[in-house]
Amino acid sequence: MKKLALVLGLALGLGFGAQANKYKMDEVKLSQTFENSQEVSFNEMFTSDLNVANATNLNLKADGAKTRGGYLLRSFFCGGIALHRYYMGTAKKHMWALYFCVPVAGGVAACVDFWGGVFDADFYKKYENNDKWFVWLD
Question: What is the pLDDT of residues 41-97, one digit of tens each?
Fold first, then answer.
């Protein structure tokens, strides 16, 4: 009896669910909308002189210069493995090991590296070609 009630309830629910859809798609209007639309691509956004978000307004640096934004992104997302240090020019090959293998000190160093860069605009420049672990103590 329980199975019969369950099957009837399921059939009734599916029947009402099928009738609940009042929206119908008009193929002609849909195709007209696509025909009248303008093609937009990602490349046009950066090459258009009329667009606000072109490459000159984004302050992109093509010469490979180290930027504060690049430092902050790397120190926030990959600070635990010292990727921001390699970005700034640290030559020590074992810097990631200091961060990764010494969790408390590495975590504190990564946190100070990130927040120092957030609050001080020139903080990240201390890391350029500097091989010391605690750069901010200088």
Answer: 666 555 544 444 444 444 445 566 788 888 888 888 887 777 888 888 887 777 767
In the chain, where are the structural domains located?
2-47, 68-137
Q: How far is CA 32 from CA 61, 74, 116, in A?
A: 42, 46, 55
| Cα–Cα nearest to 68, from 30, 31, 119 | 119
pTM: 0.50
Dist CA 2 CA 8 (whole Å) = 10
Neighbours of 100 (CB within 10 A): 12
* Backbone dihedral region for residue 95 (phi beyond 0: left; psi -120 to 50: alpha; all else: beta): alpha
What distance in Å separates the CA atoms of residue 69 and residue 67, rounded to the nearest whole number?
A: 5
